[in-house]
Amino acid sequence: MCSATKNSTEKIKLLQNKINSLEAKVKQFKEKNKFHNYDLLNSIFMGISDPMYLIDKKLNILMVNDTLVKFQKISKDEMLGKKCYSVFKNMPAECPECYMRRVFKTGKKEVFENTITTKKGDTKFIETSVYPVFNHSNKVKSTIAIARDITQVKEAEITLKKSEAQYRTFLQNFDGISYQTHTKSFKPIFIHGKIKEITGYSLKNFQDHLVSWEQIVHPDDRNKLDDFSFDKKTNTTEKIYRIIRKDGTIRWVSDRSNYIESDDKNVITSGIIHDITATKLAQEAIFDNERKFRLIYETSAIGIVNSSVKDFKIQNVNQKFVEIFGYTKDELYNMTFADFTHPKELQDDKEKLKQLLEGKIDEFHKEKKYFHKNGSLIWGNVTVKLIRDENGKPYYMIATVEDITEQKKANDILKKSEQKLKELVATKDKLFSIIAHDLKSPFNTILGFTELLLNEAKPENKKTTEILEILNQSAHNTYRLLENLLEWSINQSGMRIYNPQKTNLLESINYTFSLLKKSASNKKIKLKTSVNKNLFVKADPDMLNTILRNLISNALKFTLPGGNILIQAIAEGTNKTLISVIDDGIGINKEDSKKLFRVDINHSTKGTNNESGTGLGLILCKEFVEKHNSKIWFRNNKDSKNIAGFKTGANFNFTLENWRD
What is the 3-state secondary structure (H, E, C) of 95-116? Predict the structure, then answer.
């Protein structure tokens, strides 16, 4: 057993030695091949001009070439043994780590793009291709990544995209039409822009040849399309013509184009069309305005003149200026204003012109004297304005001269007439003063004595009584006329001052009744009122008494003996009162009613007892009522309803504002 065991042990040792020897040879073979493959791989790495690196399954960098070192500007020691994603920054959205792992998993090539930032801060666009490296078992043991710098390509793509975007933006915002056509046939090769807006037709209409550009050109302008004369320097031509839109309206367009020869020797026109209708219309408006200005300038009723700011010589005048001063245009162009200005005006003109040029004033206006060519004196209403250029410097002066010579003469005559009128008014005022003082007193005496004689007259002496009554009535009528005349003259002269006060209307009416009681009694006429005793109005008491006295006197005059007169006051709204003087007399016919309240017509009608008058009383009523911001009007009772129920006679109406405490 021991011998057998010993032999077995020796055999095992011998076998072990053989195994060890074989393993040593295998190891030696592996080491030899390893260095051989490494040298081969290193030779390949170093010989490729693109950046290249080798990565194991753990994504550690095993090998890099010199191109990568130069590209990354990082040493080999800083990259070898490091994770690839920690060395290469600015990874794409899908991390390269995933690309690498996917190659290990699928054994298929992967390509990805990313940007990297070098130590100098430069940004590079990189396209990386990752290839699998298989072992003898056909399993991926590592990957080789080859990076290619595509920065220039990318930048070119970006530039191209920007150019394309700019071109698209230009086309979208281009307010005209760009085109290319065959020069002779006008068939469009390319057309784009505001086609619908300018022509009314769609782009498809032109593309499908349903309508041609020549067709929409105005018939009178189509000959312009046959003009092929191009500027020799710029190889361009510009035509301005009209087109007829689809809706029938006419547009003006500017067609600027050049021509090129294509590869097939055909001539192609390339151009841009703009709608210039607004500009054309504006130009026509400017031309029209200039024509109108020239017409106004030449036909103006006021003289117009332009003069230099250097020597003040006249540069241009209109026809009216020639007519005013009597010189011809050629004569005036060698003159200045000073040559025909009155010597007394020269110093003031000099001061005004100095202020103009110094910018202290923009213009001046004055009346001044000139001399006509024949030596006669001319008065002119003159306005002088300084015109400055775009830099604010004096450019020229423009003046307008209105001939007011006749007006001045008329003013002198008017002044003399005014003086005479003032003297006449003063004489009139003195006369009325005499009338007021020297006539009113005697009338008071006459009235007093006639009333005294009437009161003492014996009943049996009817003839004497009748004469006294006539005298007394005549004196009353004349006295009222005198009062109205004085009141009217004072009002006309402006001496009458409107002084509204709180006035009890019924008291004013009763006061007037007391004055006219005798006249009413003589004709047996009843005086009635329908007025609230607490009604207060805003009125001038003296004017109101005059209005009531004249209206009631007028009613007494045209009321038959035994008749009635009613004064009524009715609220009109919340702020006014309507006052009516109503009688049941004979009324006023239509023709005579048109003459009432008119100072330009001398109208007077005899009363029912043959009373006379002048018509001045109603005129005075109208003026005093208007002082109260009201109106007075007349109606016959037969044509309107009244509170008294009178079917004949007349009523006069006016309103007054209610008094507010």
Answer: CHHHHHHHHHHHCCCEEEEEEE
> Is 266 strand, coil or helix?
coil
Place of tokens 């130590």: 119
Is residue 642 classed as helix, strand or coil in its secondary structure? coil
**In 3D, which of 175, 131, 130, 123 has the Cα closest to residue 149?**
123
**Sign of the dihedral defined by the CA atoms of residues 320, 321, 325, 326, in that order:** negative
**Model confidence over 488-536: pLDDT tens digits?**
666 666 666 788 999 999 999 998 898 888 888 888 999 999 999 999 9
- Other beta carbons less than 10 A from residue 411's beta carbon: 13
Q: Find all residues with CB under 8 Å of 94, minimum gap 6, and list them.
A: 112
Q: Provide, for the chain, the percentages of residues in helix, strand and coil under a 3-state DSSP scheme, each rounded to the nearest 5.
A: 45, 25, 30
Q: Which amino acid is at 316?
A: N
d(CA 520, CA 514): 10
Tokens of 65: 């070439």
- C-alpha to C-alpha distance for 85 and 87, rounded to whole angstroms: 5
Packing angle of the helix pair 505-522, 541-557 (nearest 10 deg): 30
Burial class (CB in 10 A: 0-12, 13-18, 19+), 490: middle
Determine the length of the chain.
661
pLDDT single digits (tens) 25-70: 545 544 544 444 556 566 667 767 788 888 888 889 888 888 888 8
Distance CA 86, CA 108 (A): 24
Residue whose C-alpha is closest to residue 256's, from 239, 269, 278, 281: 239
Separation between Cα atoms, residue 185 and residue 188, nearest integer Å? 9
Q: What is the mean pLDDT of each run of 10 residues along the chain (661 residues)?
A: 51 58 53 50 70 87 86 84 77 66 88 75 81 85 84 78 67 73 65 85 85 88 77 77 92 84 65 87 81 79 89 90 92 90 91 89 91 93 90 89 89 86 72 59 67 69 72 69 66 71 93 86 90 93 88 89 92 90 87 75 69 73 90 84 77 92 77
Alpha-carbon distance of 13 to 24, in angstroms, equals 16
Q: Three-class SS string for 529-550?
A: EECCCCCEEEECHHHHHHHHHH
Q: Please report, for the chain, how many H helices and E strands are present, in that order.
A: 20, 22
- Cβ contact 74:59 at 8 Å: no
Reading the block at residue 406, the tokens are 């006749």
* pLDDT for position 3: 47
Q: Which residues, 6 or more positions from 213, have their beta carbon under 8 angstroms from its beta carbon?
A: 179, 181, 186, 188, 206
Query: b/e string for 130-143 if b means 16 or more Cβ within 10 A?
Result: bebbeeeeeebebb
- Looking at this protein, which amino acid is placed at residue 577? T
Query: Which parts of 220-334 fold into alpha helices (H)?
Result: 277-299, 319-325, 329-332
- Write down the pTM of the prediction: 0.37
